Amino acid sequence: MSGPTGGKNAARDTDWEGVRLHVVTGKGGTGKTTVAAALALALAAGNRKVLLVEVEGRQGIAQVFELPPLPYEERKIAVAPGGGDVYALAMDPEEAMLDYLEMFYGIKRMGKALTRMGVIDFATTIAPGLRDVLVTGKTSEAVRRRDKSGKRVYDAIVMDAPPTGRIARFLNVTQEVAGLARVGPVKNHADMVRGVVASPETAVHFVTLLEEMPVQETLDGIAELRTAKLPVGGVFINMVRPTGLPEAVLEAASANRFDNSELALGLKAAGLADGKADASLIADALAQEISEHACRTELERRERETLEGAGVPLYDLPLLAGGADLAGLYELAEAIHTRGVA
Known about the structure:
Elements: E1 21-26, H1 32-44, E2 49-54, H2 60-64, E3 75-79, E4 85-90, H3 93-105, H4 108-117, H5 119-126, H6 128-144, E5 156-160, H7 164-171, H8 173-176, H9 185-197, E6 202-208, H10 212-227, E7 232-240, H11 247-254, H12 260-269, H13 275-308, E8 314-318, H14 326-338
Helix pairs in contact: 1-14, 3-4, 3-6, 5-6, 6-9, 7-10, 11-13, 12-13
Protein name: ATPase
Organism: Planotetraspora thailandica
Pfam families: ArsA_ATPase (PF02374)
């Protein structure tokens, strides 16, 4: 699998060596949260400590890890393969605002009074850019945080970010707060966040399926990030199905040259059909399935070629036979590790 510069460098352990903040975005329905969770597990492998941050308040992380709803605190939720810990933080903009008031003004108690009055909710509603600064600011602080010995608290941070259509605006916080504050703590805080998310320590990864709409949204998102000078990471192609049939069969089915009678003879010879009529009916049904599979395979190949034109690393993740349960999550983590992402 190609790395971010077009090929694996022998001196690098992974494709994203040096990246500490992995932002994961994707169109709804592509498995964004599941991939973000699997990436966190993969990054934590080998006795590392990783923080998985959810910013949309959907409790998606809790659902993926089959846990009760998570509070607004950093809490250990999983052990990675081979050792290593995954912590999670379910972001709450209101609590983040209280932290902000405490950090910059020392008035958290007054902030709680404002919360009861509905002022904070009002402020973040009329100024969504401020809400994004608070959420991304909390994540950026975790990236920079060190313990008393000077060691970084977390080896990596994974953010389960908003969908692709909103990702550039969500991360481009300096521009978003320009109309709110041109000087002072809010502006300084936004600049700090921008310094993290626009740095080589950050990579924004996309999750997509080999379907027209999510692929197009991915390409649009990559273009928007590049325009905003934000760091583009890789593309996780999720739920990839094995081809399963020889190339010659797929080509014949796509060109409507598939021989149903030959298939019927094969079914009868194998003892899978009773009589000529039965074999013919089964062969017709199978041929229809093969034709649809061939069409889907051809479409997926075209979409893959389109993605390759974006010039970013592509990582195939398998369609989970047992579904995206906890066991499947660890299976995806192993696939991510195997492909050199983490």
